[in-house]
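Researcher: Sequence recovery benchmark, item below. Answer with residues only.
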């Protein structure tokens, strides 16, 4: 899977980051900076690694509520910055 995929006709951007057996995916419907989106995904990955000692599919399944709340808080900060 390519890390960045852009479709000019649809004005959309898809960014993907793989870590172990997990994929973090960001989809944007606006003209955004691809580097900023990948940086955001790396920061989310860093936050997850800090909260979960072993970041794997099983640890996210076991702590789904915490992961959801973390994504919610990060998303709130992202909206404020945008």
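Model:
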């Amino acid at each position: 899977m390519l890390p960045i995929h852009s479709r000019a006709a649809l004005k959309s951007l898809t960014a993907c980051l793989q870590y172990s057996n997990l994929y973090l995916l960001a989809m944007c419907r606006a003209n955004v900076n691809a580097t900023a989106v990948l940086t955001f995904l790396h920061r989310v990955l860093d936050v997850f690694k800090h909260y979960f000692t072993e970041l794997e599919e099983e640890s996210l399944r076991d702590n789904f509520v915490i992961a959801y709340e973390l994504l919610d808080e990060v998303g709130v900060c992202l909206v404020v910055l945008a």
